[in-house]
Amino acid sequence: xxxxxxxxxxxxxxSTVAAHYAALGYPVIDGDGISRELAVPGSPYVKAxxxxxxxxxxxxxxxxxxxxxxxxxxxxxxxxxxxxKVTTPLIYAEIQRRIERYRADxxxxxxxxxxxxxxxxxxxxxxxxxxxxxxxxxxxxxIMARDKVSKEAAANRLARQPNNQVLQxxxxxxxxxxxxxxxxxxxxxxxxxxxxxxxTSID
Length: 203
Known about the structure:
CATH class of the largest domain: Alpha Beta
Number of domains: 2
Order of helices and strands: EHEHHHHEEHHHEH
Distance between the termini: 28 Å
Radius of gyration: 18 Å
Strand content: 5-15%
Strand order of the largest sheet: 2-3-1-4-5
Shape: globular
Helix content: 40-55%
Structural class: alpha/beta
Number of helices: 9
């Protein structure tokens, strides 16, 4: 079985590609979504976050207060480092469990969708990595429209993520999202028309 990573910074179209592969029937592990799934009241994930960032990141029912959590974890690079240190082992274990389940089920190709794959322990899961790339100006506009945030907030968010150069250097293959959703999906399908180990950059 091969595991193919799909990565890209915010507003690149990464999730569009992953969703399309899922619609085609391929197993897709949502690495970014796993953290949300693990964050149930009383879980080891939430308890680990409370130990690191304080008991009051949860409400009276034990549910994670995401706004408070975000203010403490994402305001500084140190906060992000602490968040990564706490959550990575738990997310890693869950991804590993799902990969092994798909392997036992006889799947031959599984996709791992994650914004942070390159340069992290999650890259070890992947036989190949596809980076979905777009122009930063376009990404900022997409973030603004999607999340209803200011241009400055969108630019700051993007600046904290791996840039195109880092993604290109760490990826096995690049898929450029330069026009619209339909064109991106067409390119994503072209990637599947050739042997996976012969994928190349598609502009």
